[in-house]
Design a protein that fits this description.
The complex is a heterotrimer of chains A (about 80), B (about 100) and C (about 220). Chain B has about 100 residues and is mostly helical. Chain B has 3 helices and no strands. Chain C folds into 2 domains: about 35 residues; about 180 residues, no CATH class. The chains are: A mainly alpha (about 80), B mainly alpha (about 100), C mainly alpha (about 220).
């Protein structure tokens, strides 16, 4: 059961990564990247690394997404 | 106790299901945002509530209750901001006549 | 053609890696190589009641963490050099009253949680960088909703040059203090529990506040 949960998360991770790479829309890619980070955060937590999970959630899904969106908004006028 | 938790969990799963179907099937941005908001607030909220009840009294349950409150605040605000931004962009709501 | 070549290359790289993954010892098994060499030494040498993650991050691998902090600082320096000029006034956004109210409502709780993560970071999951990201995210959220001026108001103007270097500076202070008390740069005096604790909290606070200021300034540099 535990291994299965990991496998599902890993599959989701690969899917979101592919979706980021294939996305034509920059803002959409930034949001998909946040989803990728959240999946990775769940995986870290489930693998017993809460420190890394918290970093992934705060930096990967939080600040990075904000900064990406600000840059996209500033450069696509 | 556990009956309530299971019922709430199933309710949350139902709202996630309905919200996802709505997200895929509904015709325009506003109705899709409306469906997605149900996932965020009612779905996640009742699943977290179910987990809090299943854990029983304690610090972890209290933290989950705090998360429920946060989700009840953040979900509708995010949906409101989305819909407002779409309205400002000039996205027209879908109507029956034009299709 | 290019796409097929890339796909073939990716497959060629990933199949040996997946095969190697299958040959690895089971997750968490005690005879894994990482558990039989230095990890044992780290666990045996760590003071009792210490959080091992913190011990490794700030003590055994303190130099690495110091390097990471300097890298984040260098990122800010690079952005500021690139965007030093060219300030242009931006139209102040007109936030929805609902969003404005909610952001004002959650801001103090957000800050409280960030400081909780920073201050308990040396004995629980969390720590300086995580707290910095939460605190920086708070400033960014206010900036996006109310405009950059509001975000700038969060940063103290006078202390700014010191605060954005708080991470490296705290590490420098801890390194010197540790050098005096233990004889090793970045050593933490286990025989002086109060100072030991104070140094850990000081370094985490330095990383946390310095990092938050750096994240905020990165955002402001791009907005201006």
């Amino acid at each position: 059961m535990n291994e299965l949960f990991d496998l599902v998360l890993l599959g989701l991770l690969v899917l979101t990564a592919l979706a980021v790479a294939r996305s034509r829309d920059l803002a959409g890619a930034a949001i998909l990247f946040a989803a990728y980070s959240l999946t990775l955060c769940l995986l870290w937590q489930h693998r017993g690394a809460p420190d890394v999970a918290l970093t992934e959630a705060a930096v990967g899904a939080g600040v990075t997404t904000f900064l990406f969106l600000v840059v996209i908004a500033r450069t696509s006028e | 106790m556990s009956v309530v938790a299971v019922a709430l969990g199933l309710l949350g799963a139902f709202f996630f299901m309905a919200g996802t179907v709505g997200l895929l099937r509904l015709p325009d941005f506003y109705s899709r945002a409306h469906a997605a908001a149900k996932c965020d607030t009612v779905g996640a909220g009742s699943i977290l509530l179910a987990l809090a009840i299943a854990l029983g009294p304690g610090l972890a349950g209290l933290k989950l209750l705090g998360l429920v409150i946060l989700i009840l605040i953040a979900g509708p605000t995010a949906s409101h901001a989305l819909a407002r931004a779409a309205d400002r962009r000039g996205i027209e709501p879908w109507t029956r006549e034009e299709g | 053609m290019k796409g097929r070549l890339a796909a073939a290359f990716a497959t060629g790289v990933s199949i040996p890696m997946i095969a190697a993954m299958a040959a690895l010892p089971r997750h968490g098994s005690p005879d894994q190589p990482i558990h039989t060499h230095v990890a044992r030494h780290y666990i045996e040498q760590a003071p009792e009641s210490a959080n091992l993650v913190t011990q490794v991050l700030l003590d055994y691998r303190g130099m690495d963490t110091f390097g990471e902090v300097v890298v984040i600082f260098a990122a800010l320096v690079a952005v500021l050099v690139l965007r030093a000029r060219g300030e242009r006034p931006l139209p102040a956004p007109s936030p929805s009253p609902i969003v404005g109210f909610i952001v004002r409502l959650v801001t103090p709780f957000f800050a409280l949680f960030a400081f909780h993560v920073i201050l308990t970071g040396h004995e629980a999951p969390g720590g300086g960088l995580q707290g910095a990201a939460i605190l920086g995210g708070l400033v960014l959220m206010n900036g996006i909703v109310f405009g950059p001026e509001r975000a700038r108001a969060f940063l103290p103007t006078r202390a700014l040059p010191w605060l954005q270097g708080a991470g490296p500076l705290a590490f420098l202070a801890a390194g010197i203090l540790g050098g005096i008390t233990t004889g090793f740069a970045l050593g933490y005096p286990a025989h002086l529990p109060v100072l030991h604790e104070a140094m850990l909290v000081g370094v985490e606070l330095g990383i946390g506040i310095g990092g938050a200021v750096i994240f905020s300034r990165l955002y402001l540099a791009m907005e201006a």
